[in-house]
Amino acid sequence: MSPPSSIRLLHQLAHLYSVQTVYYDVYHHRRQASVEALLAALQSLGAPVVTLQDVPSAWREQQKARWQRPLEPVAIAWDGKLPIIQVRLPATAAEATLIGRLTLETGEQERCEWHGADLPTLETAEVEGTRYVVKWLPLSGGLPWGYHQLTLELPKRREEALIISAPIKTYIPPEKRGWGVFLPLYALHTQQSWGSGDLSELELLISWVAGMGAQVLATLPLLPTFLDETSDPSPYLPVSRLMWNEFYLDINKIPELQKCPSAQALLASSSFQEEIEFLRKSPLVDYRRQMALKRQVLEELCRCLFAEPSRLDALRHFAEDHPMVENYACFRATGEKQCISWRSWLQPLRDGVLNEGDYDEENRRYHLYVQWLAHGQIQMLSEEARKKGLRLYLDLPLGVHPDGYDVWRERSLFALDISVGAPPDAVFTRGQNWQFPPLHPEKIREQGYRYTIAYLRHHLKHGGILRIDHVMGLHRLFWIPNGLDASQGIYVRYHAEELYAILALESHRHQAILVGEDLGTVPPEVRPAMSRHGLHRMYVLQYEVATNQRRALRPVPPNSVASLNTHDMPPFAAFWEGRDIKELEGMGLLDKAGAQSKTRAYQAMKEGLVIFLHDRGWIKEPVVDTSAILKACLSFLSASQARMLLVNLEDLWLETQPQNVPSTTKEYPNWRRKARYSLEAFCQMPQVIDILRIIDHLCKQGTVDGRGKRDQ
After folding, report:
1. Distance in angstroms (rounded) separating the CA atoms of residues 614 and 636
2. Measured on CA atoms in the order 645, 650, 652, 657, is the torsion positive or negative?
3. Which are the contacts of 574, defined by CB distance < 8 A and separation ≥ 6?
């Protein structure tokens, strides 16, 4: 076969494996994947290819495998309406009687029988000398919401398919509009903090904002991260999406403390108190140092628990009810003994076989104990929020740490020689590599999305609102094969409708609102799909500002969560005063020409926004200071059609330092900067209280017309 034919066949093979060979970048330039990237991605997806010479046989094998699979592993029954179940059969078996069994989630079963001769034929094909037909299997009656199993008995084999019966839209609460505040928990601190916020201090913040009239409290992911020798505190690179972070435990709320003299003595020692005081005064969170300090106490409390059996039965019951937590504890303890990534462990350990000698028993007990405590304190926090009529707004990261528990436990579901990222755009001209592996789009289907459902339930059990990071990942992800530059990545498609069905079903079961992070360059099919399935969009003012003076801000969609910025953006004051441009230039992320160009664009944008707000009655004078423009922008968003307004508390005191600067590591202390003021202080600040009272009033009573004009 000639090379051009091989390349054409390579593209056809890629399409069979849901790989996009062409996409359009932010500049609408047509980008075509390289042969090297396609071959690497196909290998990760299971195709037997190394070079172009392997493509013809791999293409034939995939075609044959597709037709030899009688059932797709997943089908959807929207709103209980029965799906069209297609079965692929060799023509020689097309008229045989088919026996099936439909098992509902409740365990109820129904026997099904179909006569092949009576079934309609939807398609025929001849593959590798064998003729196949596609038949339609009709099911009778309706289906309740849930995860149901269809089993089909065939000669010499049994086939199964998961049927997801789900409402077409996610849960939408009866209340129409509301507002809330955002602050990372590590940044929150009080006069009693050890060096960062904990779950009890988050509860104090909940009480205060609920008293101000808020309905929502948002924070960054609360999942476990590596905080020891391999310290990596990014909340978006967790060890697991199925556990909680013991870093945020409140030691004083742990019952064992009252009966543990050794822990009490440790806490009371002068050296320990001096260390706490040092961490408390530091402007940055020192995760490793603080976790080491906290672990000393937690280990003492764990020893006391196992010595005093009063609560030991409760821990054992928890472990029995949560076997995955037990497995997680063994994994973490093994990692601490091995002191290397699980990818370098001996084969049995790598494959999930952990025995008692592979870890220190005391460390296993510790990790089981702290997860028990964390699950309990998160439960108490969410219950307290609900009592006050407030929803916790949790954040679901797109991926997990490659050295973490989830990838180790579910390694067959991940493409381990691939990283997820983003192609080059106007901001990141060389693309981005986020350094975590993607889920395999077919393996997760074949598993019945068990892992996906598990991490959703882990969050939705406590979060009244869940933000889905990088929501376009439901449709496609940018895969970067190891060894290639981020600019050489390619898109791989996922079964979006199946994922939306799971999201809709789980959101209704937990009565939780879902928000999709749809910022930046988003494929055209994503937002219509979000609307069709009831996911809320995000409206971020700093993204939406244009230089057009007559329409400086695009209209705020009704089903959206509005905010001035996100944790990945400069605070409003830095944005308005152009400080972020200077900082990016100082870190080498913008050259001089780029900084000058961006400064001119910012100036035009500012002029347009001032005129826009002045014309619509949100500011009285065309020349205003940062505080006035901040108040006007928040007022505009408060009175908009957005279902929810999220206020970054740091904006209210005109903070200029961001929490995270994307694409930096050593250049900026990402995820470490504490809030400038303590909880006790900012709760008393007039500029904070006054703006929140205005927001509360406008969210409940204010209205705007279609152009964002204030009622006079």
Report:
1. 11
2. negative
3. 580, 583, 655, 656, 657, 658
Question: Quick check: 272 pLDDT over 80?
Answer: yes
In order of 207, 512, 531, the CA distances from 393 in angstroms are 15, 10, 20
Dihedral (C-alpha) 698, 699, 701, 703: value to the nearest 10 degrees? 80
Provide the 3-class DSSP secondary structure of residue 54: helix
Q: Tens of pLDDT along 177-232?
A: 999 999 999 999 999 999 999 999 999 999 999 999 999 999 999 999 999 877 78
Q: Whole-angstrom Cα distance, residue 148 to residue 105?
A: 5
Q: For residues 643 and 561, what is the distance between their CA atoms, to the nearest angstrom?
A: 6
The answer to whether 203 and 382 have CB atoms below 8 angstroms apart is no
Torsion angle of C-alpha atoms 503, 508, 512, 515, degrees rounded to 10: 40
* Largest separation between any pair of C-alpha atoms in the chain: 85
How many residues are recorded in the chain? Answer: 712
> The tokens of 10 are what?
């390579």
Q: What is the DSSP string of 645-674?
A: EEEEHHHHTT--S-S--TT-STTS-TTTBP
Decide: residue 357, CB within 10 A, 0-12 exposed, 13-18 middle, 19+ buried. exposed
User: What single-letter amino acid sits at 274?
Assistant: E
Q: What is the DSSP string of 455-487?
A: HHHHHHTT-SEEEETTGGGGTEEEEEETTS-GG
- Give the integer Cα–Cα distance in Å for 267 and 289: 16
Q: What gap in Å lies between CA 101 and CA 152, rounded to an integer?
A: 7
Contact 616, 640 (CB under 8 A): no
> Taking Cα atoms as reference points, which of 467, 516, 521, 520 lies closest to residue 496?
516
In the predicted model, is pLDDT for residue 366 greater than 60? yes
Helix, strand, or coil (residue 82): coil
> Residue type for 428, please?
F
Buried b / exposed e over 289-306, threshold 16 CB at 10 Å, is: bbbebbbebbbbbbbbbe
Q: Is the pLDDT of residue 3 over 50?
A: no
pTM above 0.90, yes or no: yes
60/546 Cα distance (integer angstroms): 51
Q: What is the DSSP track for 154-199? A: ETTEEEEEEEEEE-SS----S---EEEEE--TTT---TT-SSS--H
Domain parsing of the chain, residue ranges: 3-66
Q: Are 188 and 202 in contact (CB under 8 A)?
A: yes
Burial of 331 (0-12, 13-18, 19+ CB in 10 A): buried
Vertex 247: Cα angle to 245 and 253 (nearest 5): 100
In DSSP terms, which residues pair with 406 in a beta bridge? none
Q: Are strands 391-396 and 418-422 parallel, antiparallel or unpaired?
A: unpaired
* Number of Cβ within a 10 Å radius of residue 358: 17
How far is residue 316's CA from residue 173's CA, in Å, rounded to a whole number?
Answer: 37
Tell me the DSSP string of 342-383: GGGS-HHHHTT---GGGS-HHHHHHHHHHHHHHHHHHHHHHH
Q: What is the DSSP letter of 535?
A: P
Residue 473 main-chain phi, psi, to 5 deg: -65, -15
